[in-house]
Request: fold
Amino acid sequence: MPMQPWFPDAKLGIFVHYGIYAVDGVPESWAFYLGQMPREEYMKQLGGFTASAYDPRSWARLFARAGARYAVLTARHHDGVALWDTAAPDGLSVVRDTPAGRDLLAGYTDALREEGLKVGFYYSHSDWSHPDYASVRHPDPDPGQAAVNDNRLSSAAPGAQDPAAWRRYLDYRNAQVRELTTRHRPDLLWFDGEWERSEEQWGIDELADEILAAAPDAVLNARMLSRGDYATPEQGVPMQPPSGPWELCLTVNDSWGYQAQDDRHKSVGQLVRYFTETIGAGGNLLLDVGPREDGTITPEQTERLEGLGDWIGRHSEAVYGTVAGLPAGHHYGPSTLSADRRTLYLTCFDAPRETVSVRGLRNAVRRVTVLGTGAELGHHVTGGLHDVPGVLWIDAPGGADVDPHATVLAVELDGELDLYRGTGRD
Reply:
C-alpha cells in the first residue's frame, strides 16, 4: 500500500507513554519483567491509577502548539493494561481494574481530531500478564530471551509448548486490535514487542489484513515486520538514514513514562537540533512525554514542547511541505528542500561568522533571506572549473537575525536543485 502522504509531511509527532507505571514512577512494564520489582508490587499500581486530572483536550492543544501533526498514545503496553474498556477475555483494563474507571481513548481521539491532528495508538504484540502469552518460544531467540521464555511457559511440563494456548492468545490480541480499529479508525498504529516471536508466529499477515479492512488508510510502523510502512529507530539520529519513510522516537528526558527522579531533560536547543537533523535526513521526529498518573504533563516537558513549537512556528516554511535536503558535506548543518526543489533551507546551529558556505551547487542563486526576519543577505561564488562548481558564500546574518536556537537561511535557486557529486577536476 502506498504511504499516506500526510505522514512524511507531518515532521513532528508526540509519543505519550501513559499507564499504571506512572503511579510509582517505574520503568513501564520492564520494572517487573527485568526483576527490578516483583510483579505483584508492580500490579499494585492498578489501585493508585486515577487519571483524576486527565484532560485530553489540553494535551491536544499543547501538541498543536508544539507544531505536531500527529500523536501516538500507549493504548496497551507490555504489562497488558489497556486504557480502554476492552471486552477481550483475560484482558486488564483501567476501566475495570483501576480507580480511573473510564475509557481514556475516546476523549483522546476526539480531542486530537478537533485540533486537526492525526490519531495514533501504540499497541504491544506482547502481553506479559496474559495467562496464554508465554505458551510458545521464538524459533531462534537469543540465549537470554530463551531463558525468559522458558521460565514463562504456561504449560506444566518443563519446556513444553502449547500451540492451542498460543492461538487463544492471538485471538485475544486480534480482538483488542479490532476494538481499536473499529471504534476509532486510527490514522496510525504503532506496534511494539515484535522481537519476542517470529512473523509467522505473530500471524502478521492475518492481523494486517484485518486492520486494513477496518481502517484502510492506517499507517503501520515497522514492528509489523514485512507489513510495516516505515522504520522506527529509537533515541539517536541514524548516521545512515533508513531507506524509505522513517521516524525517530526520542524521549524529552531519559524515560519513556513518568519517572519523578529523571530530571535529565534535553534543552529546547537540543530538541531543535534533533528535530532539524531528523527532518533534514527525510524523517519525522516522534517526541515522547510521560504524564503523571493523574494525566498531567509536567511543567518541564510542557516548556520544552512549547519552546520547540515556538521555533517551528518561526521557521515553518523550512519544515512543512519539504523533503530531505543536502547530502552530508555540502553544508555544515542539516537542510531541507522545498517540494518544488527550488528553495534550500540551511540550518545554522551556531551564530555564523563571516560567511555560510554551500559546496557543489550548480544552480545560480536568486536570493538569500533569513527565515523569521526576512533580512536579505549578500552572496557570491568563488572558484569553479568547467563542470565543477565553485563555492557559494553567503554573508553571515547578525544581531536580531540570529535565532537563539538555530538560524535558517532560505536560498532561492534559479531552477530545481542541481548538485555536483563528482571527485573534482585534475
